[in-house]
Amino acid sequence: MPRIIIDTDPGVDDAIAILMALAAPSLELAGLTVVGGNVPHASCLRNALALLEYAGREDVPVFRGSSRPLSGKFPYSRRVHGRSGLSRPLPEPTVRPQPEGAVDFLATQLSARPGEMTLVALGPLTNLARLERQSPGSLSRAAALVIMGGAVDCPGNFTPHAEFNFYSDPRAAHEVLTCGVPLTLVDLGATRQVAIDREAAAGLHSDHPLGRLAAQLTQDWFEVDDRRERFHFHDPLALAAALEPAVITTRQATLAVETGGAEAGGAEAGASRVTASGGPVALADKVNVERLFALVGGWLGWGG
Ligand code: BDR
Ligand code: CA
Atom of ligand 1 at shortest distance to CA of 80? Predict the structure, then answer.
């Protein structure tokens, strides 16, 4: 049975990815490691705990990670994800995060089970970069490393060149991409192939409690602003590709990230552009959209 750890900054699409992982058959979700990103770390942590409690999965441990990037401050994305980070309010969680920090948990898990743990990163890469700084070689012990981030051959979604996760901590993104570990990168070029419009979102329904919440999160996201046209399944695509690689084709690349002054001035100064000549990356290319939605719809009971 595959074992995965999700590093995440929930976030509406992170939340849907987490619900997918909880609903997927034959999968052991070994933990959620939280990073600040879409909203401040305290809100991301709360959202992770609230989702698990809603799902009745308090057995999945949650670990506090980085509340700041390697340098500077997170820019946050409240415009997209709302003040709390979730488009539908969930009850205040009663479960607490683990006393151990995210980086220590990742180091212990990866060294205890080399080659067994799939790591899926859905937020800024700060926790993963700190892990490699603290325990070099840790990421090489993952069975697979799948990252959502970057805008390789396409426009960004936060600046003309930058994707939000990489923009939030360009130095961390650079260090992870160039640490020498082969990884799969699901960038905006791939996730832009996976969006649904308002009408399709309104048609989502499920008898499965997790599927129902995932549909409601999507529908409520459209309710915030009637000019919203498309919801992108960025993080759900990365999660699905980690569990079912056939939902994407990949092409080999060597990639790095321009940190462009990030060390001096924080994220605002970083260009965060993805460049050639770095570490080995299997870059997501074409998405089999039909297969993806069949898979996700099956797990979440959408349409059922
Ligand atoms: C990424 O940024 C966040 O807003 C989403 O959760 C996703 O991880 C898309 O650029
Ligand atoms: Ca995310």
Answer: 4
